[in-house]
Structure formats: C-alpha cells, structure tokens
Write a structure and sequence with these properties.
Helix content is 93%, strand content 0%.
C-alpha cells in the first residue's frame, strides 16, 4: 500500500466507525423512546383500568 492508499483506507474506516457509532446512538435513542413509550402505556393502562374499576365499584 502506498501512503495515499493507506490514508484513504484510514479515512474510509473512520467514516464506517463514525457511521456505526451514529447508528448505534440512534438505535439506543429509539430503543429508549420505545421502551419509555411502552412503560408509559402500561402505566396509563393500569391507571385507566384502576380508575374504571373504582368508578364501577362505588
């Protein structure tokens, strides 16, 4: 490999690594949002069910 090819290779590898980190961060963010959405949906569902139960059994 010449110096030019080597630096080009390094540049491509660093681009791939940065892209991978960006995708990973995006995946983590989406996963967190979906997880939080699931959690809040469960909480809201439980509260709604409890409220319905309490209203019906008064």
């Amino acid at each position: 490999m010449t110096i030019t090819e080597n630096s080009l290779f390094d540049f491509e590898v660093s681009h791939l690594v940065e892209g991978g980190i960006a995708l990973f961060a995006l995946g983590v963010t989406l996963g967190t949002l979906i997880g939080a959405g699931m959690t809040s949906a469960v909480v809201i569902g439980s509260v709604a069910a409890l409220a319905t139960y309490l209203v019906r059994h008064k």
